[in-house]
């Protein structure tokens, strides 16, 4: 599915976020600005937006981007090449639940709009914790379900009914838009997600809702 929507993935994120996803990414990365970073892992990197932004904002020595979709990574590599960051950012095809990366390697791990796609959420988060250094930080940016009336009802209508119509026009795989709605509905957001983080061993967990609850930033420390 993600291979199919790769050419329109960036547009999809803009539509889902009502055009403010880049601002959310900057706010998420700002949580790492005072945390020295030599090695950064961007999990579920997609087309590389966060990896590129992290390189510019945080100036790590090296960034590794991992994603399960080869087509996504192909678009990511082209964007990195255009940004002239190929010496810093590299991409690998891989599964979050079975990372072929060393223990205790990364100073920080970021995941933007990807954890809800993990087949086994606890296993994926445990794998990320394995490759984090002690004291390393996990920053997750993910869509949530708004709770504020009437925005909750408005966004639900937009997400469930209007966005799929847009998807039929812009995507080769319109079913992906239905999946995205369903995956957000099924995701254990807010306190339920920080509880999962705590269950697999992360400390100092907390979250911050953004934009009336369209998404949230989550933080955990190994």
Care to give the gist of this entry?
It contains 9 helices and 7 strands; from the N terminus they run αααβαβαββαβαααββ.
3D structure, described in words:
By secondary structure, this protein is of the alpha/beta class. It has one domain: Vaccinia Virus protein VP39 (Rossmann fold, 3-Layer(aba) Sandwich). The chain has helices at residues 2-5, 9-16, 21-30, 49-58, 70-82, 121-131, 151-170, 175-186, 191-199; strands spanning 39-43, 62-67, 89-93, 106-112, 132-143, 203-210, 215-221. Strands 3-2-1-4-5-7-6 form a 7-stranded mixed beta sheet, with helices on both faces. The longest helix has 20 residues, at 151-170. The protein is globular, with a radius of gyration of 16 Å. The two termini are 32 Å apart. 41% of the residues are buried.
Features of this protein?
Rossmann fold; 222 residues; 9 helices; seven-stranded mixed β-sheet; alpha/beta; 44% helix
- Give a short account of the largest sheet: 7 strands, mixed
CATH topology: Rossmann fold
Portion of residues within helices: 40-55%
Q: Supply the CATH architecture.
A: 3-Layer(aba) Sandwich
Write down the domain tally. Answer: 1
Q: Could you outline the blueprint of secondary structure elements for this entry?
A:
Blueprint: H1 2-5, H2 9-16, H3 21-30, E1 39-43, H4 49-58, E2 62-67, H5 70-82, E3 89-93, E4 106-112, H6 121-131, E5 132-143, H7 151-170, H8 175-186, H9 191-199, E6 203-210, E7 215-221
Parallel strand pairs: 1-2, 1-4, 2-3, 4-5
Antiparallel strand pairs: 5-7, 6-7
